[in-house]
UniProtKB/TrEMBL annotation:
It is an enzyme of class 3 (hydrolase). Its cofactor is Zn(2+). The keyword Zinc applies. Its EC number is 3.4.11.2. Keywords: Hydrolase, Metal-binding, Metalloprotease, Protease, Signal, Zinc. This is Aminopeptidase N. The lineage of its organism: Bacteria, Bacillati, Actinomycetota, Actinomycetes, Micromonosporales. The keyword Signal applies.
Length: 494
């Protein structure tokens, strides 16, 4: 007992004479999340949980004014942090105190709170701003699209900068409330559900309300403003279906668009049988005015479509593709933009499966035809790491789909479709990597698949098929499956 007391006393005296280590000083958050292709996209040091975006839009001036409230939590002791944004900011509040702010580069806004923020502390950031988005240039272009009757905030990978401040990277998802005041008679469409009907606001103005209750990547948030005809329905499970068609569509385009987009509930019901339950609280689509949007984009719960997809008649394949993304790209997002094949290859394979279901070409026939006819340049792009200039290259779509078909051949249908459903179930509302997909495929199949993925995703050359498969693919060059033109039409504007 005596010796124990002596030892304790000596320890106490020793500690008393030792200075406690100094706490680390708060530091700035990073201007970027370390994406290999776009290193300054997104920001480190905090994690966003919710955006409340409240706007007013003047169509005759293309002028936007608004306030965005960001709810987040600090992931380190912060002396300052960055937001991705390019409109003109008049004030910023951080936790109810005015904050200093300055521009850095073409899209970074550096915010310095009046008081530093401790790791784990809640952040409430209120940004008030205005500007003419179509006059703002960043990353070498203007993503905001002004239309004859309004505007489109639709784009990938950059779009949020032109209409709300954010942590702009798919690895930081959040829920959204979006409300926009516009002149009476103008429609506003966005993601998710309408928690309330449009309400009068000032003389001659109405405010529209939209809510995304499931985590959503910033580039998937959108607003479409103008003259639109809106249709509403409810699926058998009670999910609202809201579609919108520009009133500027020529009559033949409008009919073809409706014959395609009005099938959204049918198509997504079918996709649910393959990929798992519908992951969001609403469904639908928006067709833009002709000559404005040059692509289709899988905006969460409600894709936006170029009118050009319907110039030759109905095109359900683009509806299949963009809604395939609701599972692959939206519910499960990429951790890095280099992983984009996890979005596009999977959505493209959804089109192959639809083609097979419709009797317009089997997945084998589509694979064989593409293998036999694609140019040498096609095979030089590695879909698993295409490079920042090729994130939307045709190989990311088609060779990505071919990779999945080779996986299906290797593991069999039961394991293949179990892999797809498990992938979504495990990573829903989060982000994931190719390495995780390979690991899951090996876990479910019990096979070693490194060589397969190395060959199809990461080799800049045409893979060699065995002699039987090669001969079959060579014969397929004689005639393309009937669905191929529609599938390629669904890709050509991306």
């Amino acid at each position: 007992m005596r010796r124990l007391l002596v030892a304790v006393t000596a320890t106490v005296l020793a500690l008393a004479g030792t200075a406690a280590p100094a706490a680390a000083a708060p530091a700035p958050g990073g201007a970027g999340l370390g994406d290999e292709y776009f290193p300054d996209y997104g920001n480190s040091g905090y994690d966003v949980s919710h955006y409340d975006i409240r706007l007013r839009y003047y169509p005759d001036q293309d002028r936007l004014t608004g306030t965005t409230t960001i709810l987040a939590s600090a992931e380190q002791d912060l002396s300052s942090f960055n937001l991705d944004f390019i409109l003109d900011v008049s004030s910023i509040q951080v936790n109810n105190r005015a904050a200093a702010f300055k521009r850095q580069g073409d899209h970074e806004l550096v915010v310095t709170p009046a008081r530093s923020v401790a790791k784990g502390q809640a952040l409430t950031v209120v940004v008030t701003y205005s500007g003419v988005p179509s006059n703002k240039v960043a990353a070498g272009y203007t993503a905001w699209i002004r239309t004859p009757d309004g505007a489109l905030a639709v784009g990938e990978p950059e779009e949020a900068w032109w209409w709300f401040p954010s942590n702009d990277h798919p690895s930081d998802k959040a829920t959204f409330d979006v409300s926009v005041a516009v002149p009476d008679g103008v429609e506003v469409i966005s993601n998710g559900v309408q928690p309330r009907n449009p309400t009068p606001e000032l003389l001659g103005w109405s405010r529209w309300y939209w809510r995304s209750a499931k985590p959503q990547a910033t580039y998937l948030a959108f607003i479409t403003i103008g003259q639109y005809d809106i249709t509403r329905d409810v699926t058998a499970d009670g999910t609202p279906v809201i579609n919108a068609y520009s009133q500027l569509l020529p009559e033949d385009y409008a009919a073809a668009a409706r014959a395609s987009v009005e099938r959204t509930a049918e198509i997504t019901d079918w996709e649910s049988t393959i990929f798992g339950p519908w992951p969001f609280t609403a469904r639908g689509g928006v067709v833009a005015p002709p000559g404005t949007l040059g692509f289709a984009l899988e905006n969460q719960s409600r894709p936006n479509y170029s009118a050009a997809f319907f110039r030759a008649g109905a095109n359900p394949y683009v509806v299949v593709h963009e809604n395939g993304h609701q599972w692959f790209g939206d519910a499960v997002s990429v951790a890095q933009w280099k992983e984009i094949w996890l979005n596009e290859g999977f959505a493209s394979y959804a089109e192959w499966l639809w083609s097979e279901k419709e009797g317009e070409g089997t997945t084998d026939e589509l694979f064989d035809y593409l293998y036999a006819t694609e140019s040498d340049d096609f095979w030089t792009v590695e879909p698993g790491d295409p490079g920042p200039a090729n994130v939307f290259d045709g190989a990311v779509y088609d060779r990505g789909a071919m990779t999945l078909h080779q996986l299906r051949k290797a593991v069999g249908d039961d394991d293949f479709f179990a892999i797809l459903r498990t992938w979504v179930a495990q990573h829903r509302y989060d982000h994931a990597t190719t390495a995780q997909f390979i690991a899951l495929s090996e876990q479910i199949s019990g096979l070693q698949l490194d060589d397969l993925f190395q060959t199809w995703l990461y080799t800049p050359a045409k893979p060699v098929l065995d002699s039987v498969a090669g001969a079959k693919a060579a014969k397929a060059a004689v005639k393309a499956p009937a669905s191929l033109a529609k599938i390629r039409a669904a890709h050509e504007h991306r």
